[in-house]
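user: can you give me the structure for this one chain? tokens are fine.
assistant: on it. calling the predictor now.
[tool input]
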Amino acid sequence: MTPMTPMTQDKRMRARGLVCAVWVACGACGGEAAPESSDDTLTAPTQRQLEQRAYIVSERSEELTVIDLDKLEIIARVPTGGVGNHMAELTGDFTQLLVTSSGTDEAIIVDAKSLTVQGSIPLTGHPTHLARTPDDRLFAVMVESTNEVAFVDSNEGQVVNRLEGFSTPHFMRFTKDGNYGYVANIGGNRVTRVDMQSMSVVGEISLDGYADRRETDEEGGFADAQISSDGVLYAAHHSSGRVIAVDAMSGKKLTELSVGAQPWVAFAEHPFHGIALRHVVPNFGDETLSIINGQSSKPNISATLPGDEEAYGVNYSPLTPDLAFVMNRVREDIAVVDTTKGEILERIPVGGNTETASTTADGKWIVATVSNRNQVVVIDVETRKIKKTFDNVGKYPWSVTIPKGQNYCH
């Protein structure tokens, strides 16, 4: 077991003064600091307040920006001390966050109630994406340079296991019962199946005709392996232009689908009920979108639409279950796609390269980063308009994490 690393003196000094330093004035979109106050003037957040937040990780600066989703105000900027921060994930009760700092090889623990850094956990090997296990006990952290998945207990502040044998692990997803996890290898031609009870690799799912070798292109494999509400896993293979569909419980491959050139992710997993089983796949190579119809007895491609050369995110909402919102980084807009009709209804210009987004638990807002403008925009799902723009959200805001939201990363 790896013990928690003591914070540096600089981090300790920041943490002691953090409560006064990071809370910002109500309505201060640009983040002007509130007058200093003593710790005892601050009231602990209610459970409702903890749930109505968006946490924004900036890739080129250390701060974690916190937005109140009820008031649509920035309420805090937490100086994490991280370098190249990549993604954040919450514990099941939303009282603690883990933020991966790729540049310092650690996961930073943030107390969501006090919004202070509590410590860090060393994770040598470039930690990036992370996901909470369904039983809320652990975080699975992708450690890309060492081809490992680290399982972290944030309460104990330590790594409890490191699994080897992956090829640049990029994301991990779990079956609903938590018995199995699936790791997408972006540097290989396989999705790895993990038995979560024994914490061991128990299978590999490959494309037809492919050996389990590494790609020469480091991102030629599987970026994600998302599991839809009916228990079917979909994973897009970047080099071949194919998507595999797998019964997640049994690990049996159901079919393979040919989509566009250089697909990124088959966006099939979300935490909402009532979303149609139609999954959008952005294809970078031919700038198209493929829509997978998962409602038939055998998944098939129902439509191909104009896309973008880099569309890293697709969001859904239970308020508009037949629509998908596609983050087009190069086009600098969000495309609203009717997945039933197979057509683009409109485009929402955002004025910069939109990277990733998260949908709120109630489906009301989509909170999206506009990275090159250091902005975050809030989209009203029903009106399909920008409700609010936040400026000065760190340097290059990168990922968005919302309690019970649709959280993903690049």
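assistant: here you go. Confidence is low (pLDDT under 50) at residues 1-21, 25-41. The longest strand covers residues 73-79.
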